[in-house]
Amino acid sequence: MLKGGIESITPEDHSNDDVEIIDGPVEKKAKGKHGQVIAVKRGIEHFANRAFTKEETEKANVKMLRYFVHSNVPFSSSENYFFLKWINFVKPSYSPATQYVLMERLLPVEEAWAFTEDMKQLEGRKNLTYLIDGWEDILHRSVYGCMLAEVGKYPVVLGFEELTGIHATADNIIVVADKALKKKKVDPMNILAACTDNPTTMQAFH
């Protein structure tokens, strides 16, 4: 029966998929009961659960890694029973990376990528403010973070050092600063000012 250009195909033809009668050629053609050329219309589920390519799986794993890192979610969550149940419900054909793959393969690559991006951001910048701050983390460790800021630009993290058991003297803080600047190849002559106890530093690591 034809209705609005749509023909219902019998089970032996196309398993009751709805089809639309067309005049021109299509990528996938079939014949209706009346001999017309038709294009099979399938439900969204045929596309929603299309299997990922290897490249798409890799991109999905990297995005998951970034979510875990920036939300302080433990990597072991990728193997959590309920997390996997949710993934299977949303995308049955996708198998997320294991904790081992996240830590041993993807994290080092992501760290190298972030380092390269930081170097690009710092290139040619000469009106920098050096920010450093120390605090006690949840494990009661004495930690210091440092970064560079500039008006109208996002701050760039330089480094993060643990000073547990070491007095936070001016000399030791200078050692931390010097190490961080050398790591990102920053010329101290491009720094106009230094600021301590700035909340921006702590927020960058939380």
Average pLDDT score: 78
How many structural units, i.e. domains?
A: 2
The CATH architecture classification of the largest domain is 2-Layer Sandwich
The gyration radius over C-alpha positions equals 28 Å
Strand content bin: 15-25%
Helix content: 25-40%
Order of helices and strands: EEHEEEHHHHEEEHEH
Number of helices: 7
CATH class of the largest domain: Alpha Beta
Gross morphology: elongated
Which parts are unreliable, with pLDDT below 50 for 5 consecutive residues or more?
Answer: 1-27
The separation of the N and C termini measures 63 Å
The largest pleated sheet is described as: 5 strands, antiparallel
According to CATH, the fold-level topology of the largest domain is Nucleotidyltransferase, domain 5
What strand order characterises the main sheet? 1-2-3-5-4
Give a structural overview.
With 206 residues, this protein is α+β, with helices and mostly antiparallel strands. The chain folds into two domains: 51-117, no CATH class; 124-204, Nucleotidyltransferase, domain 5 (2-Layer Sandwich). Helix content is 38%, strand content 24%. It has seven helices and nine strands; from the N terminus they run ββαβββααααβββαβα. The chain is elongated. It comes from Psilocybe cyanescens. This is DUF659 domain-containing protein.
